[in-house]
Write the structure tokens for this entry.
Amino acid sequence: MTEKTVVNDLKDVTVRFSGDSGDGMQLSGTLFSTLSAILGNEIATFPDYPAEIRAPKGTPQGVSGFQVRIGSHDVYNAGDKTDVLVAMNPAALKVNAGNLKKHSIVIYDSDSFQKKDLEKAGFKTDDPFQELNLNSVQVIPVAITSLTKAALEDMDVDNRIVLRSKNMFALGVVCWLFNRPADIAERLLKEKFGKRPLVFQANVKAFLAGYNYGNNTHLTASTYRIETVNNEKGFYIDINGNLATAYGLIAAAEKANLQLFLGSYPITPASEILHELAKRKDFGVKALQMEDEIAGISTAIGASFAGHLAATSTSGPGLALKSEALNLAVMLELPLVVIDVQRAGPSTGMPTKSEQTDLNMALYGRNGESPLVVIAAFSPTDCFDAAFWASKLAIEHMTPVVLLTDGYIANGSSAWKIPNMNDYPKIVPPYVQKHFDGNPSTWKPYLRDEKTLVRYWAVPGTPGYMHRIGGLEKDYYTGVISTDPDNHQRMVKTRQEKIDKIADFIPEQEVWGDQNADTLIVGWGGTYGHLFEAVKKIRKAGKKAAFTQFKFIAPLPKNTEEILRKYKKIIVAEENNGQFASYLQGKFKNLPLYRFNRITGQPFRIEELVKEFIQIIEE
Amino acid sequence: METNLTSQKHTPKDYKNGSAVRWCPGCGDHAILNCLHKAFAELNLEPHEIAVISGIGCSSRLPYYMNTYGLHGIHGRAAAIATGVKVANPDLSVWVTTGDGDSLAIGGNHFIHAIRRNVDINIILFNNKIYGLTKGQYSPTSEKGFISKSSPYGTVEEPFNPAELCFGARGTFFGRAIDVDLNNLTDLLTASAKHKGTAVVEVLQNCVIFNNGIHSKITDKAYRPERTIWLQHGKKMLFGFNNEKGIVADANLQLKAVTIGQDGYTLDDVLVHDAATKDSTLHLKLAQMGCDNDLPVALGVIRDVEAPTFENEYEKQIEEVQKKMPVKSFTEFLMNSKNMWELK
């Protein structure tokens, strides 16, 4: 299930502002490039005026553009193809369509994409994207005209100034998407319009309105792509991590011959899983948007009790709210998949930014001794496999599983070869009727399979197996409420042992690169692509390095210690303050650990990884 | 759920599981448990087709005393868990046993939203106006000024009336009974089961240890006929030891208790109870009646209105979508993706 991936960590981004010549695109572009230069980016710009200064409005001949290419270094030209297009009208989209990269982002003014605007630009249908064959672009519609008008409503300025401020609204949106601080833009506008206070105020207001719109609606645009280096013949689709997660659940439900249930509550960046599963009524999926996070997981627990494959999807703050109910699922020993699309915390943190800081919460964030399974997906496409595995382990081992993805792989997309489902393992629910010779009289709700310590699933509606389960401790044999001291100790140990035994049912950990190197680079979850790239570069530079990425966190694969003991130096790289490193250290004493921690809300930077890893290797 | 006519007629003991009931002697919960066993027998439900879900509190221990499927959940979440059970398997008869703390404080959100969705579950709300399991703190239904361990000088907050929450959440069924009136309580539970949608049954229940006698001014046999009224759909709102009293509405739609034959009131003036009318105005007024406004406390089915249930609407939507997009295998579904390409 491992794949070769290349992170297309766009070192430079080409942004093109495009609209009518009167739309002020040149100014938006100039400000954006100056702003980026102030922030230390290297820039190259390319103003692109129309040949006919007075071409009719809204027609392709009248389109004016300004292209900015920004990057960290070595930006020699303005870029020949566009990563991000701001299209103020359909004509701008049409003129620039041929120059768009396959997975580029198009932000467009939905107010000026009405029927007559489309006709003016020569479109024949009401779907210009389809007409231009732009199937893979990320489309972000924003009602730029009306939102600008609304923003300037209480200002005493004429309509002309209002319409001329649209470009600043658009710039505000772009600045939000690319982390350009608003205060610098404000300063630049002051320099430009300082002598005309009213125009200055209108422009700043529109700019901030655009910036805040991006913030308020949690707009995100992924400029990172993870390309799968896959030469296998077959059919492919483009998929992001959230979609792959939803698909993984659907596929698992089909394998297990169960209906899929999702109880969820909207939260950035996980909502897309809810959206996709709400669409999938064709598969009979029941996806309920509940009144809160707690109801999301509680309905899922109810559905699991009633015999569905049940899941709940959320991000960090939501997982915090779910912890009591998640603990109930641990005690009930019912299958449950909890998806946490990690985002930058603590508290509300940075909702649109990515991090790996929820590991401790997933492992330990509950009262009492509360063991469960934790899995972390590697990449957008691996979310499919990870969600499939999460469902399989949950069902077959009657346990909640926390699946950790993150904002970066959830929104990032990648080409995915449509899998042959015959290659995926069976999923067999441990239905009670298939055991005890179908004779309920010898069965008790918490009797376990001797080998796996898994209890059996007696689904309501099944005659003869009526039983009560709950959050109270129960007797090892009878399942009846018990406060017996020795029994409690035994139950605590047994619940842990049941999870530990799952190590026998997951793949062994693999090591890539130089097996005989002194240094092992360790990562987990969504940093796979960056770390893999970094290790490749290190080896290319003539250094020896081994690399292993963990998907199964709890329990760890059986051969984990054996691998770790082979190396003189172990670098654990993660987007947090060292949670996985501490976890490994707690399990295996005296590991020669080095920690690489970045908590910026941004994915790793490969150059940085290479530089610091080589330093440690050569130390 | 259809009752199975070919099966043997069930008796209350078919729903008892034989484990020792651990509520305090004299607790009103015993009566509710017995009435529930009786109601199940009257409805002739199959024990394996019943799921009783609860939260935390004395009332929430009830599932352990049933020979049905049961889930003792966490504080306040029973309505949400029950929603999941019912949506997953609409054929089950799903019950929630809960208290005033469980459903009106920590679980208030799930309580109102379950009612709003009109999931076909039956919520039995044990209202003893106190936290019993945590040993005597005031609850969201305790009267203003109530003295308890956590309000030694009396509370300074107004209580909830559960019916107001239910109607505020657009509830389709609300009934009320007292724990000591076994026959009526059994009838009410049976009626709630027959209702399609969320049914809220408030049981005025006595906590013998921490709030003994909290309802006695209406439950005591010496006053009960004067201070309560058993409402029945289509029947005149009469009460009193000899049914000599009735409820009338004045020109301002204010309810008043009158004695027939006095002050010019005749039997014709007495209101006829219409539980099935969609407009909840009068239901609300009836549910608000009480000793403070010189009116009898309304018991029985106060509101029972037909409306589509959440799980049926959901199933219908699935069917409609599947008609347009026939079920296929997951692989077929992917092979029909719009943006698919082939690597040759």
Remarks:
- Residues 434-505 of chain A form one domain.
- The two ends of chain A are 34 Å apart (CA to CA).
- The longest helix of chain A spans residues 197-216.
